[in-house]
Amino acid sequence: MARNFTQRGYVVDGNIVFERRAAQGKPDRLPGLIDELVAKHVEVIITQGYPAAMAAKERAGKTPIVVTLSGDPVATGLAASLAHPGGNITGVSEVASELSAKRLALLKEAVPSVRAVAVLWNADDFGMSLRYQAAEVEAKRAGMMIVPLGVHAPDDFDTAFAEMTKKPPDAILMVTDILTVLNRKRVIDFAAEHRLPAIYEYANLTQDGGLMSYGPDVAAIFDRAAGLADRVLKGANPADLPLELPTRFELAVNLKTAKTLDLTIPETILVRADSVVE
Amino acid sequence: MSLPETRAATRPRRPLFQKYFAALFVAVVVPLLANGASEGWFGYRDQRVFLSQRLHSEATSAAGKIQGFLDDITDQLQWTVQLPWRDGMDERHRFDVLRLLRQVPAVLEITLVDGSGIERLHVSRVETDVVNSGVDRNNDPAVIGARAGRIWYGPVTLYAGSEPHMTLAVAGAREANGTTIAVVNLKLIWDVIMAIHIGQSGDAFVLDRSGRLVAHPDISLVLRGDDDPAAARLKQLQQKAIAGGGKTAEGSNAESRWVIAAMAPVPGPDWMAFVEEPTSEALTPIRAALWRTGMLLLAGALFAVALAYLLARRMTGPIALLEKGAEEIGAGHFAHKIEISTGDELEGLAQRFNAMAVELAVSQERSERIARLKRFLAPQVAELVEGSDQEALLDSHRAEVVVIFCDLRGFTSFSGAAAPEEVMGLLQEYYEALGAIITRYEATLTCFMGDGVMLLLNAPVPCPEPALRGVQMAVEMQDAVQTLIASWRGRGHTVGFGVGLAKGPATVGRIGYEGRNDYTAIGSVVNLASRICAAAEDGQIQIDATVAAELGEAFSLAPLGTRPLRGFAEAVPVFSVKPRDVDLATLPAAK
Prior knowledge:
The complex is a heterodimer.
Chain A: H1 2-6, H2 30-39, E1 45-48, H3 50-59, E2 65-68, E3 89-91, H4 99-110, E4 116-122, H5 126-142, E5 145-151, H6 156-166, E6 171-174, H7 178-182, H8 184-193, E7 198-200, H9 203-207, E8 212-216, H10 218-233, E9 249-254, H11 255-260, H12 267-270, E10 275-277
Parallel strand pairs in A: 1-2, 2-3, 4-5, 4-6, 6-7, 7-8, 9-10
Antiparallel strand pairs in A: 8-9
Helix pairs in contact in A: 2-3, 4-5
Chain B: H1 3-10, H2 16-79, H3 90-103, E1 107-113, E2 119-124, E3 130-131, H4 141-149, E4 151-159, E5 163-171, E6 179-185, H5 189-194, E7 203-207, E8 213-215, H6 219-223, H7 229-243, E9 249-252, E10 258-266, E11 271-278, H8 279-282, H9 284-330, H10 345-374, H11 379-387, E12 397-409, H12 411-417, H13 420-440, E13 444-449, E14 452-457, H14 466-490, E15 496-513, E16 516-522, H15 524-535, E17 541-544, H16 545-551, E18 556-563, E19 572-578
Parallel strand pairs in B: 15-17
Antiparallel strand pairs in B: 1-2, 1-6, 2-3, 4-5, 5-6, 7-8, 7-11, 9-10, 10-11, 12-14, 12-15, 13-14, 15-16, 17-19, 18-19
Helix pairs in contact in B: 2-9, 9-10, 10-11, 13-14
C-alpha cells in the first residue's frame, strides 16, 4: 500500500504518515482501534474487511473511509449504491458474492469428482457470510453438497479440522478474509495432510501452497484504494467518489500441490490461468 | 516701439509646436494603430482557426485511439468465429474463448451462438460457465446486428447503475461460423483516455450517442452514473458542439472549468470522442500574440511621440528663431543675425530676414541722415542730396554764395514786455510764414538767431541766378511778414522786419560735433550781409553791389549810396529793392 502512495508522488513519513492498526483476528478490538485513529486526527481511514469497515462507519464520525476487501458493500449495507455510496465511505467493492459460485464451478472443473465441499468462512463477517450463501446456491444448482464450517476465532479452526477429519469432504473452499488468511497455513497444511483439493480467493494463497485460487487482483484493488484515498487527501468529497469494482481477476494454479494430490489439472483450467506455480 | 504689447497681443493660442506635434503624431500613430489593429485581428482569427484545427485533429486522433481499443477487441473476437460449428468442434471453440478471456482483460463475458442462432457456450469471469444452454438467440439484436454488418456495437449500459459496459458482437464470414457476443467492461478505456494529453492540462473524454459519459480521466465521474451534474455539463458541451456545426465549442467542463472542446466521431459504436483544453491555456499563444502586437503598438506610439517631438522641434525651432529675430529687428537691433542652417526654405527665409535687417539698417541710417540734412536744407533738396548720393556736396569748399539775413525790428523790446506765450506765439507765426517760403526757394538755412535767420543760396546745391532768386525770396518774405506785422499791430505789438542780401565767395561746409552738425558759410560776404540787414529798415530789402549787378531789370533798385559798415575798411555801396508791379508767381524761381 505504501508503494501505491509513493507512486502517486507521496513521501512516506514526509508528506504522508501511516498509522497502522490491526485487530489480529480479534474483531472486538476494532472499535478501540478506530477511536485511536480518530484521536490521531487521521485524514482518511483505509479498512480491510467488513468488520473494520463497519467499525469505522460506526465510530469514525466525519473521517473519510476507503474500504477494501469487505465483500459487497452495497449488499452488506455499508454503502447505499456503487454510484453514490453516501456518507463518508468510498473504496473498492467486490463483484457481488457470485464469485464464490464461480470458484465452486472452477473447483469442480479442475477436479470433476468433487461432490461434497467444505466451506470455511468467517461467520462473523457479514460480507463473507454472503459469499458462503452464494456458494450454497451454486452447489444446489450444480448438484453438489456443502459442508458449512463457519469460524469466529482462530480456535474455531481446530473444531473445523476435527469436523473434516471425522467426515472428510471432497474439497475445501476457503472464503478469504483476515481471519482465514491469518490461519491459512493451518488450512493449507490440513488440506495437504488430508489430500484435499482446495480453492482460495487470492493468488498469494496459491503461492503459499494452496491448489488454486480465483479472485480479483488484490494489488490492483489496493492500488485503486490508494487512488481513492489520494483523491480524498486532495480534497475530494468521498460521497462524490463511487465505489469501484475490481476489473481484473486472477486464476492461479499450483501444479506442485496438484502433483502431491495426484491430480491432473485439465487444459481448460490451465489455459485461463493467469499464474501457474510449477 | 511698443514691443511688449505687440508680443502679448500676438502670443498664439495654439502654438505651432503643438499643431505640428499633434499632426505628426497622428500621421505616424494612425497608420500604426490601423496596421496593429488589423494585424491583431487577423492574427487572432488565424490563431483561432489554427486552434480549432489543432483541437479537431487531436479529437480525431483520440477518436482513433478509442476506435483502436474497440478494434483490438473485435479483432480478437474474430478469432472465435473462424471455424464452423461442426460436431466435435465444441472443445475447440471453448479453448478459443478461454484464451481470449486471458488475452483481453476488458471482456467480461462471451457468448457463442452457432449458425442457427442457438446459444452454445457462455463463459464469464464472474458467473459460472454455461455450456449448450440451447437458448434461441435469433431475436437477440446483437445476433441480428452482427449478421447484418459483421460487427455490432450495442448501447452502453451501466452495471449496478455505475460501471459502464457494452455488448459487442461479431459474426463469422460464413453463417455456419456463428456469432460471438461479448460484454466489454468500458472502464478499461481509462488506460487509453489517461494516455491522451492535450496541451498542458487538457484531456479527452468520450460520450455515447445519447450523451452518456463513457470514458473520462476522472473514473469516478464515469462511475457516478446518469444524472450527475458534472456529466450533464459534458452533455451540454456536446450539444453546443453539435449546434456549432461539429466544430469547437466553449463551455464548462466536468470540473466546471471553462474549456474549448472539439469532437470527432468514433465510427464503430457511434460515440463522440472529445478533447478539451482550458480556454485560458488554449488561448495563451493568441494572448501572447496580442500582447506582442500591443507592445509593438506601444513602442510605435512612443517612437511616434519622439519622432513627432523631434520633427516639430526641427520645424518650430527655426520659426521661433525667426520670431525672435523679427522681434529683435523690430526693436531696432539690426545687427542681430538669425542663425538657421537647416538647408531648406527656412534657412532662405532667415537669410532674407538678415538681408532685410541690413537693408533696414541702411534705410534707417539714411532716413536719419535725411532728417539731419533737413535741419538746414529744404526737404526736397535734402532728398536730392541723399538720393543722388552727393554727400560730397556738403564737404567744405569755397563757393560763390548769396547770403540772406533777415530779422524783426523792435522785437527785443517787445519780448521784454510781452508774456512768454505771446512771444512764442508770435515767433511761431513768423517762422511758419518764413519756413514755407524758404522751403519753396530751396534756400539753405544755416541758423536761427532768436528772431533772425541766416540763409544761403547756391550752396551746398548750386542753383541758377542765385542773386535774383534770393531777392525774389526776400520780396516774398517781406510781403508775408508785413502782412503778419499788420495783424500784430492790430494787437498792439510794434515790430518791423528787414532783410539784407550779399553775394560773394565764402567757405561752406559742416561745422559742429557728432549729432549736432550745422551747415554754414564763413567769409566776409556773411558779415556783409549781416551788416546790410542790420542797416535795413522795416519793410526794406537791402542788397550789396554784387547782387544788384546781377538783378538786371527784374527789380527797380534805389541806390542808397555807400555806407560805412562795421568791420569793413571802406564804405560799401548798398541798394534798396523796390518791387515792381510784377506778378511774382510768373517768375521762374518761384516755382
